[in-house]
Every structure is written in structure tokens, then in C-alpha cells.
């Protein structure tokens, strides 16, 4: 965990788009989001996926691994998030031995 003191990624981000899943799936149970906390932890939720994040911060980016569930089955993976010039977030969420999706998010 480094670079957390003033990292602009900290906080909750509303996932608004992915290249694999449409808005109906993303927001199936609740509004889709990814959250980065200053203690190096975080959370993501979209569709039927719930995951806890373990984050490594850089100046305007984060690499993370995640562990949780997808439709009540154990799931895990990794990802990255990058702050764009327009203040939005873009990145990738990958499932271990499974799907890889790009995403876009806006500060909540």
C-alpha cells in the first residue's frame, strides 16, 4: 500500500460501462461500483459479483486483487484502475481463469 495520502482514486466510483456486460446486468441487484479505501482495501459489486479488494496504489492508478463470489460461487481475480484526464476512471477487472472486462466509472 503506497501513495495513499492524496490518491485521487480513493472513494466510491459508479461503474457505468463495461465491454462485456450491459447496464441491466451491471445494476441487477444494486448500482454497480468499485471503491478504493486509504487502508489499501476496497470493494466491488456488479451484477451478482461481490468482491473485497487488496490494492496497491500509484499516483493516479491502482492495481488490485479481489476475492469474493459470483452468483454465490467463490470467485477471485485481479484488475487495475487508471484516472483519466477528464476525471473518470477506466480499468480492467479479470476473473481467475475466466472473463476479462474493461470498465469505465465516474466518481460517486
Description:
The protein is mostly beta strands. Helices cover 4% and strands 59% of the residues. It contains 1 helix and 8 strands; from the N terminus they run βαβββββββ. It has one helix at 23-26; strands at residues 11-18, 33-36, 41-46, 49-58, 61-70, 73-83, 89-95, 100-107. It is globular.
Gist?
With 108 residues, the protein is mainly beta. The chain is built from one helix and eight strands, in the order βαβββββββ. An eight-stranded antiparallel barrel has the order 1-2-3-4-5-6-7-8.
Attribute tags:
Lipocalin, about 110 residues, 8-stranded antiparallel beta barrel, mainly beta
List the helices and strands and how they pair.
Layout: E1 11-18, H1 23-26, E2 33-36, E3 41-46, E4 49-58, E5 61-70, E6 73-83, E7 89-95, E8 100-107
Antiparallel strand pairs: 1-2, 1-8, 2-3, 3-4, 4-5, 5-6, 6-7, 7-8
CATH class: Mainly Beta
Number of strands: 8
Strand content: over 45%
**CATH topology-level name:** Lipocalin
Sheet of most strands: 8 strands, antiparallel, barrel
Spatial order of the strands in the main sheet? 1-2-3-4-5-6-7-8
As a whole number of angstroms, the C-alpha radius of gyration is 13 Å
The secondary-structure element order is EHEEEEEEE
Mean pLDDT: 95
- Number of separate domains: 1
